[in-house]
Structure formats: C-alpha cells, structure tokens
What we know:
The chain is 30% helix and 10% strand. The protein is an alpha/beta fold.
Amino acid sequence: MSRFSHFLAIDWSGARGERHKGIALAMAELRDGPPRLLQREKPWSRTEVLAFLRDDLPRDTLVGMDLGISLPFADCGAFFPGWDKSPPDAKSLWALVDELSAEDPHLEAGGALRHDELARYFRHRGEQEGDRFHAPDAPTREGRFRVAELAQRAMGCRPVSNFNLVGAAQVGKSSLTGMRVLHRLDGALPVWPVDDLPREGSVLVEIYTALASLQALPAHRGRKIRDHALLNEGLSALLSAPVTGSGPIDDHSADALLTAAWLRRVCGDASLWSPRSLTCALARTEGWTFGAR
C-alpha cells in the first residue's frame, strides 16, 4: 500500500519568458482512475508552479519534476573543479544559482550562465564549449554525467549532460531554472534524496519521463507520444484507466499524464528508494533520478 494519496508529474521548461506551453502538470490519485491535466486559462509560469508546490499541493503527494536536481560531482569531486568557490553540496548549488540569477525575471537562470567562472563549464549556443566543459581526466564529446545518468544509460535511456545547453534534448536550462524553484521551496517540500524521505507528507523527486515511457511502452523506445491512442496504450500497461480524447496530443501533456500514472504504479517498490549506487555522499551532492536502478 502506498503512503502517498496523490501523484503529480511536472514536465518542465527552462525557456526564456513568463509562460510556457512546455510546462505541463498532471495529477493521478491513489486508485486506478485516469490521470488528469492541471490546466489554467493561460500556460503555466514557473512562479505559478512554485506557488502551487508551496501552497496548494494536496497532502501526501509524490511530486516528480522532469529535470536534473543537481550537476555532476562524483566524477571530479566537485561541481566546478578548478574553481575555489565551487559549492560543496546540492543545496549550496541551488542557492548559488538563485543568487547569481536574482536579476533574471520569471525564474530564468541567465545570470548563472553569464557568470565568468560558471560559463566555463557549459556548452553554449553555437556548440561553443567552455574550456572546462569536459572532465579533466575523461574528456568525452558529450560532457560530464551524474552517477544516476549513467544508471539511466544502463537501462536503455539516452540522457544528456546537465552542462549541455544546446539542442532539443538539452536539459541544462531546465535544470538550472528548476534549482531556483528547489531553493525557494526552502524546506517546505522535501527533495529526495538530498533530503531524507519523510515518514509522512509530500516529497519531491527528480523524474526522467523516458523511464516511464520505457516501462510502459518498451516497443516505442525513443518515440515521442503525440496521440491519445498511444498514450492510452501506455496507461493500460501501467494499470491505469484511459484518458478521454482522441487524435493528437502535445508530447508535454502526454509525458506528464503517463508519468503521473507511472509514479502511482511504481512508488511502492522499495528498491527504487534505495538504488544500489546511491550513497549518502552522492545523495547530498548529485541527488538521484527516481526510477533509475
């Protein structure tokens, strides 16, 4: 029996501007009914999502946000190796990103990326790489990865480095804007595994919607869900009732709906809360992706 009563999946966006069609929230309740989109008259803004998480979240909700809650640390012993002000842990990283981006509107993270030192660690527009984008001892074209992302790869997913800001699959900007949200939650919502899993109440975890899709629709690996029929096929595999509608659906909404049902289905698996590679030091620095083994 799950200790959670609600399951919220958030497809996130790091794009500039106030409101984003790329932000989608879907909620599933404890029984096997269909997940539903949480919609407003206008697309969600990041500040509205933050306010919802702080003030309007149903009790005992498992929240999954599709972003990286931290940056690689274990490979080099630091987020920003070679910089004497590199933060020692994930919470300090969130605070730094929020501080450097304080002048950016709409919880954007441009200030952090314009910082003379931090900019050296990212791949920027035009494939321009900072001189510290690669790990000093193991340079690869793809850049650095967290331990959780290596676990995702072993499962058949293709994560992109959080230091990469280029391309449709990049997650760097969404991760940095998300870190501003995590910092501003200020303990109101525990973030596993940076925070211990509480015995009761709500908790936020990092999700990767590709993991939900991989489990629900293994024959369609790597394919975006853009129609109701395929979405409902995945929901059926997760023992969820189908959503209403037919024909096209945007992939952000589909990802959120499927992942909300997936969270409900798998959250009782104790092994997902204690993956074998997750140490205390790793939890404090890199965090983890819920569902990665």
